[in-house]
């Protein structure tokens, strides 16, 4: 990680140029706006795997990274030159929509991805192809969004790893995923929209509120005119919520995430009721897109 960050260290920049006291300061700064994409928004909830999250998305080729974290949070000194820090309480109600909608307005036409710390974007062939290459192909496909799914990661032995976070020996569920057609408020089926379930949120659903049990995310998208994220995480532009275009399948991506495992271990109720996340359908996560494609979790569409 240190080697990757060292390539991007701001050796000739004042660190204060990269640090904003709040969200309005970021979006009104002429040096930051308009931000050039693709842009990764990283929401920091705790001190777990912040550096690896930054490193992973730097390596994917994001043009800008914007880190949102509490004002008193300490970060390493050798942050990449294309990283902006914004003081922000990401645990506040509506924090994600507030952040996304503000950045959408200041970065028109740019591709944006959002995640939390200890989450990692995976897309087909990401080991050898950059995020820019993938998004260029999506533009040729006349798509302004890439549907992504959350893949819950967890440690095998919670006695040895109480936080459930172990990047070097992570596991995930190789089966148990299913999709239901999404319906509107009147019960009508929405075209090319699916609600995806599975992983820890399905196996331990009694500990997770219903509105947070889905795995589908519209987390990689282009900021089009008038676009707005709604309170439920979907977008005002219907096409941004679809799995593919009408004429063929498109690329899908995944966010490999320790977030659910962390939450289940942090919550006193679930922490004392769950001895292990490991089960007969657990599989070691090898951090390759091929593993996810082989299992059908993500697909390359027409991109070969």
Tags for this model:
304 residues, alpha/beta, Rossmann fold, 2 domains, nine-stranded mixed beta sheet, three-stranded antiparallel beta sheet, 9 helices, 14 strands, disordered N terminus
Short description:
The protein is an alpha/beta fold. It has nine helices and 14 strands. The strands form three sheets. Strands 1-4-3-2-5-12-7-13-6 form a nine-stranded mixed beta sheet. Strands 8-9-14 form a three-stranded antiparallel beta sheet, with no helix packed on it.
Task: Give the neighbour order of strands across the main sheet.
Answer: 1-4-3-2-5-12-7-13-6
Average residue-wise pLDDT: 90
Element pattern in H and E:
HEHEHEEHEEHEEEEEHEEHHEH
Number of strands: 14
Write structural notes for this entry:
With 304 residues, this protein is α/β, with parallel strands linked by helices. The chain has two domains: 1-117, 3-Layer(aba) Sandwich (Rossmann fold); 122-304, no CATH class. It has helices at residues 2-7, 23-28, 50-60, 95-106, 131-140, 199-203, 259-266, 268-271, 289-294; strands at residues 19-20, 39-43, 64-69, 83-87, 111-116, 119-122, 145-152, 154-155, 170-173, 178-183, 189-197, 216-222, 253-257, 282-284. A nine-stranded mixed sheet has the order 1-4-3-2-5-12-7-13-6. Strands 8-9-14 form a three-stranded antiparallel sheet, with no helix packed on it. Strands 10-11 form a two-stranded antiparallel ribbon. The chain is globular, with a radius of gyration of 19 Å.
């Amino acid at each position: 990680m240190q080697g990757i960050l060292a390539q991007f260290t701001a050796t000739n920049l004042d660190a204060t140029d990269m640090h904003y006291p709040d969200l309005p300061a970021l979006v009104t700064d002429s040096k930051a706006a308009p931000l050039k994409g693709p842009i990764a928004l990283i929401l920091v909830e705790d001190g777990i795997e912040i550096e690896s999250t930054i490193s992973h998305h730097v390596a994917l080729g994001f043009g800008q990274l914007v880190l949102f974290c509490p004002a008193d949070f300490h970060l390493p000194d050798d942050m990449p030159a294309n990283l902006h820090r914004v003081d922000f309480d990401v645990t506040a109600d509506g924090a994600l929509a507030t952040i996304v909608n503000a950045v959408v307005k200041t970065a028109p036409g740019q591709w944006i991805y959002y995640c939390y710390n200890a989450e990692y974007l995976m897309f087909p062939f990401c080991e050898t192809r950059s995020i820019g290459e993938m998004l260029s192909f999506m533009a040729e496909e006349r798509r302004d969004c890439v549907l992504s799914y959350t893949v819950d990661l967890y440690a095998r032995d919670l006695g040895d790893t109480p936080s459930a976070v172990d990047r070097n020996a992570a596991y995930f569920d190789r089966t148990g995923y299913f999709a239901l057609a999404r319906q509107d408020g009147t019960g009508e089926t929405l075209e090319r929209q699916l609600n995806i379930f599975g992983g820890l949120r399905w196996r331990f659903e009694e500990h997770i509120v219903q509105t947070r049990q889905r795995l589908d995310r519209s987390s990689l998208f282009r900021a089009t005119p008038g676009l707005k994220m709604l309170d439920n995480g979907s977008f005002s532009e219907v096409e941004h919520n679809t799995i593919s275009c009408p004429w063929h399948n498109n690329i899908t991506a995944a966010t490999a995430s320790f977030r659910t495992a962390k939450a289940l271990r942090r919550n006193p109720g679930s922490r004392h009721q769950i001895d292990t996340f490991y089960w007969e359908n657990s599989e070691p996560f090898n951090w390759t897109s091929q593993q996810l494609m082989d299992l059908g979790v993500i697909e390359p569409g027409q991109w070969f």
